[in-house]
Amino acid sequence: MFVYLSKKIAIPNGVKLKSLRWNATKGWIVCGGDNGLLKVLKLDSGRAADKKGAAAPSNLSMNQTLEGHNGAVVCVCWNEIHRKLTTSDQYGLIIVWMLHKGMWFEEMINNRNKSTVRGMKWTSDGERICIIYEDGAVIVGSVDGNRKWGKELKTELCHVEWSPDGRNIIFGTLQCEVHIYDSTGNFISKLPLHCLEEASAPTSLIGIHWYDGSEGFQDINQPTLAIGFQNGRLQLMRHEADENPVLIDTGLVATNLQWNTDGSVLALAGNFGAGGAGRDISMVQFYSPLGQLLRTLKVPGSGIHALSWEGGSLRVALAVDSFIYFANIRPDYRWGYFGETLVIAYTQPERSDTTVLFWNTRTDERSVKFFKQLLAIRAASETCVLGTPADDGSAQFVLILCNVIGSPLDAKYIDFEPQHLLITPYHVVAANHTFVYVWQYRTLMSKLTSVDLGTGSLRRKEGRERAFHIDDDPALNASLEPAVIVQGRYPTPDQIIAMGASQSVLLVARESGVMHRYSLPHLSLDQQYTLRFRPQSIAINCDSTRAAIIDTNGVLSFFDLSPGATEGGEVMQPAAEGEAPTRFERKDAWDMRWADDNPELFALMEKTRMFIFRGLEAEEPVLSSAYICSFSQLEIQAVLLDQLMREPESPSKEYLLKFETRALREGRELLEKASLSDATKYIEENPNPKLWRLLAEAALQKLDFVTADQAFVHNSDYMGVQFVKRLRLLDDAKKQAAEVAAYFGNFDEAERIYRDLDRRDLSLQLRANIGDWGKVVQLVNQGGGDDSMLQTAWNRLGDYLYEQQRPARAAQYYIQAKNMEALMNCYCATEDWTGLARMTTVINEGSPLLIEIGLRFAAVGMSEEAVAAFTKGGNIKVAVESCVASHHWETAVKLAESYEFPEVQSILAKYAKELLDAGKQLHAVELYRKANQYTDAAKLLASMGAEIGETRMNPLRAKKLFVMAALEVERMRKSMITTAAFEGTQTAAQTLDSLVEEDKATGGDKWLDSSWRGAEAYHFLLLAQHQLYNGYPADAMRTALRLRSYENVLPADQIYAIIALSAFYAKFFGQCSKAFIKLKSLSLPEHKKAAIAKLALAIFSQYSPADPATKSNSCPNRCRAPIKEWEGRCAECGTQFATCVASGRSILDPDQTSSCRVCKHRFYNSELRSKRNCPLCHSPLQLGMHHGSSAELNLDLRREHSIN
Questions:
Q1: Pairing status of strand 117-122 against strand 103-111
Q2: IFT121-like zinc finger domain: from which residue to which, for each copy (predicted)?
Q3: Are 574 and 616 spatial neighbours (Cβ–Cβ below 8 Å)?
Q4: What phi and psi, each to the nearest 5 degrees, are found at residue 586?
Q5: How many independent structural domains does the chain possess?
Q6: pLDDT tens per residue across span 589-631
Q7: Is pTM, for the whole model, over 0.85?
Q8: Which residues, in sequence order, are CB contacts of 732 under 8 Å at separation 6+?
Q9: 502 with 570, same domain?
Q10: CA angle (1170 as vertex; 1166, 1174 as ends), nearest 5
C-alpha cells in the first residue's frame, strides 16, 4: 500500500483539536477542541470524478459549528445506523445531536457533574451506548435515551469497547488493565496483556478497537481486537480468550489506534523520538492484522491527537494541533489482469471465505470462485496464479494456475508460505524470507508443460521445478537436480524483501541491500548489485535491459541490466554541460508498468497523476487514481479498482479507462489533418506497430496502395499485404472503394457502392461472406442469387438461432430450407413430438433419417410412433426390438408374424422366464397378454389359482385367478373365430381343423380346460360361507351341497366340512350325518378322524339323523318328478339344471333369469336386486335382458372384493 498527505484544513483561531471521528456511511467528520469547539464537516463525494479516474475532490460541502459545550470536547462518537452524534466535554456534559433537514440540532443533554467522560461507544447495531467516567461510573443507555443500567466500578476507567455481537464490554483502566464484563454489567474476567510482560517502564493504555466484521474478513482467523499502549506495544487478538495473540513493539510513543473499515489495516498514530537535540517526529504506522508493517506516514506538527478512517478505507483523517490532515491510501488489492480478463478478490460479510471474480472486460462474462484463504493473485500473458494454503490441513501451500474463466490448469504444492509471488509468460516464482521456488509452467513452444498433446490423448508431463535457499552456493542453483527439500533448513538473517522477474531475468532483493540477478530458465547467479535503499517492488522491461524499483518511501529509480552497464547499475539523469549527473528519481510513486512492446516506454502513477515516459522524458501528466492493467501498442488500459471494489458483484465497463501516449495522439492528428507523406515521415521517426496500422488504414481509405503496402510490411501484416495485392487487381476504383469499406466493417457503404454499379451478385457475395444471411434472403427475394443460395441462407439462419438456444424459431427456417435432419433436432429440443410425427409422413421410405427419428421416439417411450418410423425406414428388427424394450409385446408379435421375424418368440420366452424366476408371476401374465399368448397366460393363471387354493388362505384370490384364466381361453377362442371370419368363408373341413387346433391348444392342461369350473368351485365356496355367516344356514347348505360336483377342484374334507356345518345349523341332520360319514371315509390324519368321531357322537347322541320336511319343486320337463332345491339333475329324466350364481339355487324357470355376456353364467333376476355386476366374474351387467352386457372383465387383483 502507499500513503500520502493530500489536504489540510485549518481550524479558525488556532484552536487545538482534541477529538475527531469520520462517519463511515455518510462521510460527516466531527472534530472537537478547546473552548467548546465542535464542528461537523463534510467533503464532496467525488462520484463524478470517480467516473473519470481522477482523485476525489476535497472541497467542503458542509461546515457547521455546533454550540453547547464550554470545555474542551474530548470525546465524540457516531451512531451510523440511526444518524446520531454523541459528544462530551471535559466537564462531563454529554449532548446527543440529531440531523434535521441537513442540519444538526440538540436532541438530549446529560450532565453527571461528578467526573470526566473518558469514553463512549455504540454497539455495532446502534441500539445501545456505553458511557464511562474516569471515576469508574458506567452507564448503558438505549438509542431512545432510556437508561438500561448503571454501575460504579472500583477502578479508574479510560477506554471502553463493545464486542462485535454486543454481548460483552471491555473496559480499559488507568492502571493498564483490561477487564471483560457481560452486557448487563457482570464481571467475567481480566484479559491477560502479554505485550507488557517485558515492559521495563510504566505506561498507559491509549486505545482499544474491535473490528466488528461488517465488511467481511480476508482471513477468518485474522486478529480483530487491537489493544495499544503508550510505549508502542500492540496486542492483536482473534477473540478475548486468544492465547496466542500477535505482539508488536512499534518503537513509537503512541497516542491513537484504529482499524480501517474492513479490518485489513490497523493505523497507529504517535511520535518517534529523534534522540539528542532533535525534536520528535509525528507519524502514522500502518500494520496488517498479522503485525506486518505496511507503510509509515510522517506528519508535520507537534503530535497527533486523533485519527479516523473514511468509509471505504481510502482516506484517513488526522487531528494535528489546530489542523485536520487528510492522507490518501492506495491499497494493495488482490487483483490481476490478463487476456482482457480482470481477476479480483474480495470478501463478503455473509461468507467466511474469499470470493474471486473473473471478469472478461470485452464480453462481460463473469465466473466466480471461492477460496478458504487467498494469499495473493498474480497475472501475466494468458494465465494467472493464485496462492492459497492447502485444504488438506497440512502445512503446505498451493500455487494454482488458472485460465481466463477461473478453471485450474495445473497446481503445485510448496513447503513454505509464498510471501512474494510473481508470474511471467513462462515462469511462476514464489519466495518467503529464505527460500525461492521457480516453476517453469510453459515453454517457448507456447504450451503448458503440465499437458503435452500426444497421439490422440493427453499425456502428463511435469513442468521443471527448482527451489533453493537464498544463501546456497550459486553453483548449486545451476545443477539439474530436482527441487530441493526446504523443510528443516535454517532461516537466513538477511531476508528476502522484494522480487522482480521477466522472461529471462530474476531479481531478488535482500534486507541488507544486496540484489541477486539470476538468469531464467537456467537459474544461474549472474551478478549481484548493492542498493542504497529498501525496495518495495521491482519491475523489469520487456527486453530485460532495465529494472524499475520503487522503495518503501515511494521513490522510483532505475537499474541498468544491459551487458555494458556500469558496475553500480543505477541509471543517471542527463545533466547539463559542466554539471555532474544525478541519479534518476521520481517521488510519491505507487504503481508503474513497462510497455509490453517497447523497452523505453513505461507508465507511472504519482499520487493522483499518471505519467507516461519515453526513456527518461515524461509526457504531460493525466489526473487519475486508476490502477494500470496493461500497456501495449501505445495505449494504457487502467481500471478504477477503488470504485469497482465497492460493488464487485456487478462490475461496470465504466470502471475501465484507456489512455493514449503522445505519439499515438500526434500520429492520429497528422493522419487526420496532414498529408500521408508527413504522417509517414513522423511514424518512421517514431516507429510502432500501432502507428503503422493507423497509417495503413488511412492509406487504404485514400486508395493509396503504395503507402498502405509499405505500412503493412512494416507492421508484418501478411494478410494486409495480400489484401492490397488483391485490390490492385481490380479494374474499377469504385470496386476498390467497396472492398476497402468492407475491410473496415462498413458493409452498408460497400453494398451501396455495389448497387450503384448494378452488381447485386457482389452485394450478395459480400453479405454471404460476412454471414449476414438475413440480408442474403432479402437480396435473393429482390432478384439476386438462386434457390440454392436461398436454401443456404435459410439453413444458416436456422443454425444461428439453434446455437442461441432458440429451436422453435430455428424450426421455421429449417422448414423453409427443407432441412429435415436439423428440423428433427429442433422438434426434439422443443419436445414437439406431434410435429416430429407429422414429419415422418413426408420423408421418403427407406430414408436413414427415419431410423434416427424412431430412436428419438423410442427414447421418450412413444412406441407406436417409433414403430411407424422404423417400419417406414425399412428396419423391422429395430422396430421389434423397440417394442420389446417398451414391453409392447402384442405389436412386437404382430410385426414378427408379418415380416417373419423369428427371434421375438425366444426373446419373449427368455423375458418371461426371468420374471418367473424372480417370483413375478403376474408380470409374466401381463407379458403374455400383451403378446397375445393366450394359452401361456391361461396356464400360468390357472396354476397360480391352484397353488393359492391349496393353501386355503385366500379363496377369493384363487377365484379371481381362475376367472382370468378362463377369460384368456375365451380370448383365444374369440381370436381364432375372428381370424377365420376375416380370412373369408371356410369349408367344413377347415372349420373342423380349426376346432381341432383349438382343442389342442386348450386340452393339454386339466386346469386350462376347466378354468370356469375352478372359478365356480371357489365362487360357491365363498357364497356358502357368506350365507352361513349372514344367518342363512339353509341357503348355505343348499350352496355347499353344490360343491360335491367340484371334488376335483376343492379338497373333499373342505367340501364336506362346510356341508356338515351348514346342515347342522339348518337342522338338516340327515345331510349332516351323510357329510360326517363321508369325512370318516376320507384319508385324513388319525387325530382329525378322532376329532370328527367325537363331534359326531356329541351331535347324533342328541339329534336323530333325519331332515325336516321341505317344499319340493317339479321337474320342468314332462316327467314332473319332484326336485329338491340343491339337486342339479332330475333323477327321473336325467335333465341337468343350471345353477344361479347369485344364490346357489337350481334354475328351473329360465324365463326368470339372465346371463352374463362375459362368463355366460345365469342367475335369477330377483336375486340381484340392485346389484349391477355379475356375481361370478364381476363384469358390469345390463339387467332386464336375457343376456347380460358384453363388457370385458377388468379384474383388480390388488383389492379383495366382497362376494356380493
A1: unpaired
A2: 1139-1181
A3: yes
A4: -135, 130
A5: 5
A6: 999 999 999 999 999 999 999 999 998 999 999 999 999 999 9
A7: no
A8: 757
A9: no
A10: 80
